């Protein structure tokens, strides 16, 4: 699981901002949102321009050098804090994987090229390129020639990638566990265009063809009925069909012609829900931009049922209720800090409190 993340000098984050998931409170409700003492599910709220989207993108920066999965083509546009392009962006991750505590820190320049890198496991320094190159020989016995090349490292290869590719590692080694986690991370959104980072390598997936070929038409119809109350009668399809059709008034009509924007977004969500159990960490940016507020609530319930660590950003304060999550799982971001609601007030928040009403009444100060 992701335990803690911090970033500095990235996009709008001129100062270091830390996202800490290690401090759940002792609430006795909605305990599904906590796993092994780490916050598993959460929603991030903030005004326009407060950093919700930037936080999600920063979390997935690690994908750009440790994973071969799909990347955003324009990711490195506006990469460094605009106020000073000479700065380097600093990233800090702490993971809890297979009993290991893995702390991975690195910095990149405005082109996204690694400048420095450090790895610690259970507080033991494994390697570092900060203030010169060093590697723990108790963990990795690397010959002098390789060490000299890594010291120079003119092509700025990640030391982790080098060790993964050229050093024999046993099963469940911490580097293998880290690599598996990163390769299974997923970020996506559905606003002006459908974009994603990680988990898959193929960007040109036809979702309706996927539904047809995997015999999921009835399941998709049930999903739409369950979360949105909409009823669609889908026509029978051949296995090589590529588009869904509905029966309306006895005639076939393309689903894409009659589905609303929100329903098409649900189609995308359905696709990822079918793969979510293969994901290690999911971040959905503005997940409910096209949803009715009650639909957003039902979608959250579907997402949080899974064992995967899932977070999303939203403006919808209807979701800020103890009927869905807990005060330690609802976060506020303001561009410089991100904190759970329970740390933004002196009030002892209980299940009976109307969290949304308190929020609208400015009871929370970050």
Number of spatially distinct domains:
2
What sequence of helices (H) and strands (E) makes up the elements? EEEEEHHEEEEEHHHEEHHEEHHEHEEEH
Query: Averaged pLDDT, please?
Result: 90
Helix proportion range: 25-40%
Structural class: alpha+beta
Fourth CATH level, the homologous superfamily of the largest domain: P-loop containing nucleotide triphosphate hydrolases
Instruction: Give unreliable regions as ranges.
Output: none
Distance between the termini: 26 Å
Question: Based on the structure given, which CATH architecture of the largest domain is correct?
Answer: 3-Layer(aba) Sandwich
SS summary, helix count: 11
Keywords summarizing the entry:
366 residues; alpha+beta; Rossmann fold; 25% helix
Structure description:
- By secondary structure, the protein is an alpha+beta fold.
- It has two domains: 2-199 and 277-360, P-loop containing nucleotide triphosphate hydrolases (Rossmann fold, 3-Layer(aba) Sandwich), CATH 3.40.50.300; 208-261, no CATH class.
- The chain is 25% helix and 24% strand.
- The strands form four sheets. A seven-stranded antiparallel beta sheet has the order 2-1-6-7-8-9-10. A seven-stranded mixed beta sheet has the order 12-11-15-16-5-17-18. The protein has a two-stranded antiparallel ribbon with strand order 3-4.
């Amino acid at each position: 699981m992701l335990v803690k993340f911090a970033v500095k000098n990235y996009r709008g984050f001129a100062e270091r901002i830390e996202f800490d998931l290690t401090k759940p409170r002792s609430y006795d409700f909605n305990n599904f949102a906590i796993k092994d003492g780490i916050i598993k599910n959460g929603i991030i709220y903030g005004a326009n321009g407060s950093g919700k989207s930037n936080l999600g993108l920063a979390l997935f920066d690690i994908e750009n050098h440790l994973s071969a999965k799909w990347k955003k083509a324009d990711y490195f546009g506006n990469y460094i804090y605009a106020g000073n392009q000479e700065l380097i962006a600093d990233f800090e991750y702490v993971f809890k994987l297979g009993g290991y505590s893995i702390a991975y820190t690195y910095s990149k320049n405005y082109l996204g090229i690694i400048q420095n890198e450090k790895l610690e496991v259970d507080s033991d320094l494994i390697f570092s390129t900060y203030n010169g190159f060093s590697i723990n020989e108790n963990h990795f016995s690397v010959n002098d020639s390789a060490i000299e090349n890594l010291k120079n490292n003119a092509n700025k290869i990640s030391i982790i990638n080098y060790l993964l590719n050229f050093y024999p590692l046993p099963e469940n080694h911490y580097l293998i566990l880290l690599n598996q986690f990163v390769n299974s991370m997923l970020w996506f959104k559905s606003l002006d265009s459908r974009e994603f980072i990680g988990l898959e390598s193929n960007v040109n997936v036809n979702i309706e063809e996927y539904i047809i070929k995997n015999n999921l038409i009835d399941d998709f119809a049930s999903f739409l009925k369950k979360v949105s109350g909409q009823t669609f009668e889908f026509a029978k399809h051949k296995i090589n069909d590529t588009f869904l059709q509905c029966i309306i008034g006895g005639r076939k009509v393309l689903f894409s012609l009659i589905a609303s924007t929100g329903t098409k977004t649900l189609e995308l969500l359905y696709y990822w829900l079918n793969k979510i159990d293969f994901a290690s960490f999911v971040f959905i940016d503005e997940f409910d931009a096209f949803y009715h507020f009650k639909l957003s609530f039902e979608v959250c319930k579907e997402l949080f049922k899974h064992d995967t660590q899932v977070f999303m950003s939203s403006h919808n304060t209807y979701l800020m209720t103890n009927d869905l999550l807990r005060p330690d799982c609802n976060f506020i971001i303001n561009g410089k800090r991100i904190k759970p609601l329970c740390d933004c007030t002196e009030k002892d928040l209980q299940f009976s409190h109307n969290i949304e009403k308190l929020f609208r009444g400015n009871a929370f100060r970050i």
